[in-house]
Amino acid sequence: MNIKHSTYHRALEITENICIGCSHCIKVCPTEALRVFGGKAGIHADWCIDCGECYRVCPTRAIRVMDDDFNKIFDYKHRVLLVPSVFFAQFSESVPRESIYNIIGELGFTEVCAVEQSVDSLIDEINEYVKIEEKPVISSFCPAVIRLIQVRFPSLVDHIMKLLPPIEITAQYYKKRFERDGISDNDYGIFYLTPCIGKIAAVKSPVGGYTSPIHGVLNMDYFYNKVYLAYKQRIPITKTIIINSELSSKGVLFPTTGGESSHIKGKTLAIDGMKNVIDFLEMLENEEIKNVDFLEIRACDESCAGGILSHRNRFLTADSLRSIASKIPDTHNLVDKYKNYCSAVVHMDKIEPRSMVKYDRDIEIAIKKMENARELKLMFPGIDCGACGAPSCEALAEDVVRGQADINACIFLRTIFEKRGEITIKEAIKIMEEIWGKERFDKND
Amino acid sequence: MHFEYKVEGGDFTLAGYASSQIKKTLKQLGVDPAVIKRVVVALYEAEVNIVAHAYRGVINADIQPGGITLILVDEGPGIPDVEMAMKKGFSTASPQVREMGFGAGMGLPNISENADSLSIETEVGSGTTLTIVINFK
Fold first, then answer.
1. Among A297, A310, A202, A317, which Cα is nearest to A257's?
2. CB contact, 8 Å: B30 with chain A?
3. Size of interface A-B (CB pairs under 8 A)
């Protein structure tokens, strides 16, 4: 196979010397963007939606998150960390919140802010939006869902809400505050602690004609370990940190399943988990879903509590969030301030579909290639074993007609060809080594 | 390129299979999403019509560079008054079918609205053949 062995992508990449070519990732990719060749996994960058399903199943941590280097924060005099509520739910309740803030300060941040501070105003904006726009409105909260729709459900892009997610509104709020206080652009850095890969892509290459004011994105899993280690080692606290922890119970629960839809008027549904999301979007595209006003759709099971950079069990994390929310009021001190400026910054442009050219841009050629692929598929065994390096017989058939794989990659056909004397055992083994890497079969010593 | 799907009367669980498959194919061919939507809506309605009213049927889809032709042949009661059936809101669906969210009397009108051409041949007591043509451009 000769797909460009692309190891680059906006939010994740495969570290070749760690990848063992186990093929677990190729089976879980919702856009079938992964293949194994030369004993390593490769990503079809145009098809990747940054959902991180591959990261979740990788047994060797070969899939690297393209987060920013922590030391980048020291390029700025004022260093702000936007912390999502799900971060605090990573810790057991015995770890005092104050200790966590102090450690964040000690690690180098001068200021910490709650990401979901903007949620209360955003909910009002969404309710206004849903009143006038075409139904059902699909939430713009989950970046992996937006990208999934762009690539696999292009006819639904117009349903995606053209309002920014909470993280961007909060980031804009702090940017404005620095500007108001006369602090120069070069002096402040806004960093976001992310519970998922999708949000890295969302900040680095946003949709809807928008540029994010966020300077860097930090990996929550990495940062949790850093903070927890400092806590365990009881590092001395020598620095002070400004804490903007204003948050309502709505804000805390917003990243959990139902945390958004429950505040929207009309008939709403909350759907989580990649498989459920795909099934539902298929139905929506077929116009089988009627009379729904608003859809909260999240790629991860249990939403952000199940984010791929959330180290703790998703149900325990969600439970912690509910517990935190139950102890605080449903409004906070900054709500009015956010309201005053939210409607000015919250809107974004229309989201464009991202076409996934399977065969050819010319429909005549595409039909011919697809007919060939259908014939090929009938020749393959149909058990989707993955021994060819592609996720399914259908995917291999498509790769063959695109000229990106050989029919001999199928181990079943290869055996038949061998029996017929059309290829030698030596050739068959060479093909196997080309797909799975030569070293894999050197087990004699 | 030719596809064939069988449809069983009364099996609402599987209604929509053919339209889902055709949708997947058209997406892979890079057909304009707005056109795909019309095809899916028309075919889904026609598929549900067979499930709700006929005993069984066969869907033939022929995809050419210029467009798609869908021929749905069913064995069923036929349509006694086609003109009436083409009216919005007119329905002969049973209460059970209506309870499942079908039978609002939008089937044929909806197909017609989404198709570039629709022809209906029907014989009472024997069955109905629908020919739907939708152009890609």
1. A297
2. yes
3. 56
